[in-house]
Amino acid sequence: MIAAATRYERASGVDHALELLGEPDAKAIAGGQSLIPVMKLRIARPSVVVDISRLELCGVEEREGALHIGPLTTWAELAATDPPAGLDRTNGSKIDGAGDALAHDGCDRRLVDVDLVDDL
Fold first, then answer.
1. Which of the four pLDDT bands, split at 50, 70 and 90, describes residue 17?
2. Whole-number Å distance between alpha carbons of 21 and 46
3. What is the pLDDT of residue 101?
4. Which residue, 61, 96, 110, 114, has fewest beta-carbon neighbours within 10 Å?
5. pLDDT level of residue 32 (50, 70, 90 thresholds)
6. CB-CB neighbours of 75 under 10 Å
């Protein structure tokens, strides 16, 4: 099936993305998400699809004692990042294991592109 007509906007910055996503039924897309197949089945009919893939929202950093992972951070970036002091990479974390496995497969999917339930 072909998706119903919808408006597509590429966000030029975070403020622009937030403005666009403030519209009723707006959806963000950053890559190979499940949104497009659901639109093709006409289960989802967003008023606007907001492309956030080119925004600078990736990276892993520690701020004020908390770990911040940008929403566009890839599994490969996450797996390659040294954990901050006090966080042990070998603590049996499922996310750590999934990130390492995906990184070794050469997969460069963004964290927002995957359903963590399916990957864990």
1. very high
2. 10
3. 45
4. 61
5. low
6. 23
Domain that holds residue 79: 60-119
Q: Please, what's the b/e burial string for 3-42 (b: 16 or more CB within 10 A of its CB; e: otherwise)? A: beeeeebebeeeeebeebeeeeebbbbbeebebeeebeee
Look up residue 61 and give its DSSP letter.
E
Residues in the chain: 120
Angstrom distance (rounded) from CA 106 to CA 120? 18
pLDDT at 92 over 60: no
What amino acid is encoded at 100 in this protein?
D
Q: CATH number of the domain that 33 lies in? A: 3.30.43.10
Handedness of CA 105, 110, 113, 116 (dihedral sign): positive
Q: How many domains does one find in the chain?
A: 2
